[in-house]
Amino acid sequence: RTSPRLGPIVGRKHQKLKIKGTTLFPTTLQAVLDETPGVDVYVIVARTAADGTDMVEVLVDGPVKLPDLRDFFRSRTKIVPRLRHAPRAEIEALQLPVHARKRRTFVDLR
């Protein structure tokens, strides 16, 4: 073929996050969390900050240490979202709302 090829589909346009000047898709964050040892359950929450920018918080449960997770994010994505240990019940409440049929790992509250 002589025409240029398109790359793989990374994510949906409405899910695109802009953090500190870097465009990021939730699938990138999910890939980092899936590869990190010690992360049992997680959920990524996107909100709008007071200044109108995107704010991303990652809630994790498991024996992983937050400084290690920060370093892993920094090496893979060049940015570090807000990280917080949360109880499994809180994470599962966000992952599976009352009338939902399937579990989700990205919650968009923007």
How would you portray this structure in words?
By secondary structure, this protein is an alpha/beta fold. It has 3 helices and 6 strands; from the N terminus they run E-E-H-E-E-H-E-H-E. It has helices spanning 26-35, 66-77, 88-95; strands at residues 17-19, 22-24, 41-48, 54-61, 82-85, 106-108. The strands form 2 sheets. Strands 5-4-3-6 form a 4-stranded mixed sheet, with helices on both faces. The protein has a two-stranded antiparallel ribbon with strand order 1-2.
Strand-helix topology:
Blueprint lengths: L16 E3 L2 E3 L1 H10 L5 E8 L5 E8 L4 H12 L4 E4 L2 H8 L10 E3 L2
Parallel strand pairs: 3-6, 4-5
Antiparallel strand pairs: 1-2, 3-4
Distinctive features:
globular, single chain, two-stranded antiparallel ribbon, 6 strands, alpha/beta, 27% helix, 3 helices, 110 residues, 26% strand, four-stranded mixed sheet
Mean pLDDT: 86
Number of helices: 3
Biggest sheet descriptor:
4 strands, mixed
Q: Please compute the radius of gyration using only Cα atoms.
A: 15 Å
| Shape by Cα distribution | globular
If strands are numbered along the chain, what order do they take across the biggest sheet?
5-4-3-6
How would you briefly describe this protein structure?
It contains 3 helices and 6 strands, in the order ββαββαβαβ. The protein is of the alpha/beta class and 110 residues long.
